[in-house]
Amino acid sequence: MYQIERAIFDIRRGLPVVVNAGEQRLLVQALEGSESVEALALLAGERPSLVLTRHRLAAMGISLTAEAASLPLSAHISTNELHGLATSETLPQPAGGELSGLTPAGLAELGAVTLMRRALLIPAALCAFVSEEANASIEQQLANGHLLQVSAEEAAQCLAGAPGMLKRVSEANIPLEDAADSRFVLFREPDGLREHVAVVIGKPERWEGAVPLRLHSACLTGDLFGSLRCDCGEQLRNAVADIQAMGAACCSIWRKRAGALA
Q: GTP cyclohydrolase II domain: which residues (predicted)?
C-alpha cells in the first residue's frame, strides 16, 4: 500500500504514474489540472484515451456492462471538450464526431479510474499504453525516480484495502442535543485524505449484548444546510435520538466521509 499512497500523491500533483499490467505499461494521469493530452502522448509514444466509468457513460445514453470503458481521443481535442466528456451536463461530443471506438476497460485502466477515486478526483483518467519505442525512456525515468510504478492489481484494489488500515487519531466528549453523553472518535486513512468519525453514545463499560449501529455517509448540504433535495441530516438526527431512546448505555453510530468506503 505504500507505493499506492505515493502514487496518489503524484496523481494529485498532476504527475503521470505507470500502472504495470504484465507485458504492458499504462501511463496514467488525472484529468483534473490537465490542459492537453499532447505531453502524455509524447511521453508514452501512443495516443492517450480517456477512461470513463459506466455511470458517466450511462449519463451519455451509452449502456455498458463493464465497470468502465476507454474512449480514444482525437489529436486535436480541446480542453473544454476533454473536460466536458467527464463533467458537462450537456454531454459535448469530442472533436471528430461520434463517441465511437469505446472498448471495455482492462485491469490497468480500471486501476487508473480507481486511483482517481482514491485521490478524491473526478473518476476519469487520461491513459496511454507505453509504446516499444518509448519503453526504454520510461524504464530510465522509473530507475532515476522521475516516475513511479504500481501494479494494476494493487491499483484496482486500492479502495478496498484502505478501511482496514484506519488509525485512531483522537477523541473528545461532544454533547449532542438529543444525546448529551456522546463522544466523537476520529479515525484517519493512511493517505490522510479521508477521515471517519465514530459517534459513541453512552458508556462502553455498560454495553451488554449487540450494539445498535448506524452507518451514515457525510452529506454537507443535507447534514449542515438542511438541503431539501435529501433527508440525510434528518436521518442522522433521528438516529441519534432513537439510539438515545433505546438506552444510550449500549449504542453507537458510525459516520463516514461520502465515498470513502465505496
A: 168-249
CA dihedral 234, 236, 239, 245 (to 10 degrees): -80
Kindly state the DSSP code that residue 217 receives in the 8-state scheme.
E
- Sole residue written with cell 466536458: 84
Domains recognised in the chain with CATH numbers: 2-162 (3.90.870.10), 166-256 (3.40.50.10990)
> Rounded distance, CA 122 to CA 113, Å?
9
Among 96, 103, 140, 105, which residue's Cα sits nearest to residue 28?
Answer: 105
Rounded Cα distance, 131 and 58, in Å = 31
Those residues with Cβ within 8 angstroms of residue 238's Cβ, 6 or more apart along the chain or in another chain: none
Please tell me the distance from the alpha carbon of residue 47 to that of residue 61, in angstroms, as a whole number.
25
For residue 210, the 8-state DSSP code is P
Torsion of CA 204, 205, 207, 211, to 10 degrees: 30
Reported as a single tens digit per residue, the pLDDT across 140-189 is 999 999 999 999 999 998 877 655 678 899 999 999 988 899 999 998 88
- 21 phi and psi angles, rounded to 5 deg: -120, 60
pTM of the model: 0.74
